[in-house]
Amino acid sequence: MTDQAALASKLETGVSQLRCIACGAVGEEGAKSVRCAQCGDLLEVLYPGWKTNGVTRAAGLDAAGLKELWLQRRTSWNALDESGVWRFREILPALHDWNYVITLCEGNTPVYQLPSCGRAAGVEQLFAKHQGMNPTGSFKDTGMTVAASFARQAGFRWVACASTGNTSASMAAYAARAGMRSLVLIPQGQITWGKLSQALDYGAVTCQLKTDFDGCMRVLDEVVQRMPVYLLNSVNPYRLEGQKTTAIELLERFDWQAPDHIIVPGGNLGNSSAIGKALLEMKELGFITRLPKLSVIQAEGANALVRTMRETGGRELISVHAETMATAIKIGSPASWKKAVRVIETTGGVVEQVSEVEMALAKAEIGADGIGCEPASAVTLAGLKKLVKQGFVRKNETVVLILTGNLLKDPDFTLKFHRGDLFAGTEHEEEASEVLAPRQRAPMVLDASATAVVKVLEYAEQTDPRK
Ligand code: F0G
Prior knowledge:
- The chain is α/β, with parallel strands linked by helices.
- It has helices at 3-12, 63-72, 79-82, 115-121, 140-153, 166-177, 193-201, 213-226, 237-243, 245-253, 270-284, 304-312, 337-347, 356-368, 375-389, 411-419, 429-436, 450-462; strands at residues 17-20, 26-27, 43-46, 51-52, 55-56, 111-113, 125-130, 158-162, 181-187, 205-209, 229-231, 261-265, 293-299, 351-354, 398-403.
- The chain starts with a helix and ends in a 5-residue tail after the last helix.
- Bound molecules: ligand F0G.
């Protein structure tokens, strides 16, 4: 190795520590437990090496140097550079050897403008960063590549998670790539077939437990105490480090001019915590001068954070019994609530909740912009509409929705929506038939005749609402 290469590899290595978010105890880097040994609360990754002589820099480089380096890597064929996560490795915890990295070319996801959704919400500049365009179809891949690589480095044979479906799909894929075994605990009958089929195809040992997500989490906590398996839920601090890159890519895409608002769906609250951590670090490192406001939207039936903020000012978690068709965020007791409260408050964001009908309408609107997403992601647009009405988001502000999962994750929801039976037999049936009908496009069964098809075409043209 030349002197320069040795220096470069040293500079790339971000020395990190794990610190408890509650008692502040500092643990060893790469620790096998994902909770504080002193008080049992969650851990977060810190980079003490960033601060030297009063200057904050990652890997010894200033913001301008890192911006240039990260952009240059987009033209490289090096596997680490091709990943939209490891491309930013200076602000991630370093592995002892980069060969431990398990990557599926995650990240580098598109940012789309959403003109008609913007009109529906009442904002002029609306964008979506589509994390559903990751290799397994959800944002989970950006965190999984980091945490699974740490599991591999630590020599684990087994990794495990409790999941509403996307984490399990992602974990199973990354484990399979590295020849590790994976154990998935999911609530029986409460995850979509798309997600379940992914875990099976990637070879996970999949257990459908007769409980909800929160129950699966409790069982898994006990399993990891008793067996040498590594927990890959978002309580794992390395997951959140990888998920930070969503925000970093987004800021890079806006040429480091931060948007006014970033809106994220909230379930277990790992993603909002990670995006918030990235924003704070980017400000600390001098990449941006102003923080975007980070707001979190939940489904009304799974609104633990909303209640926690409104009823306790964010001081105590109020758990709920979760009920929503957005199975991805059907979570009653979010693990990362403290981290989320901290970043929402620091960035000046808010929390809001939306109804099932509002979410279903928003999902169809995102679809009609040619983008599409899974139901949980659509709470962002539904929530934005409320925030505009409340005057929290102004019409000339730039807003970015984080779409977390791909449309194809939950085709059942979409088909039921368009056939008009998503809310059949529920208390929302009447409201839904009024509000959603203009967006429904049920498939038609016709005779195999051109005349029949032409008639349909003529009718569609005459009744086109866009004319
Ligand atoms: N959107 C989708 C599509 C998700 O799958 C999840 C979480 C969220 C949003 C919420 O993110 O938990 O970080 O607040 N899914 C997890 C899972 C819980 O097991 O796949 P969060």
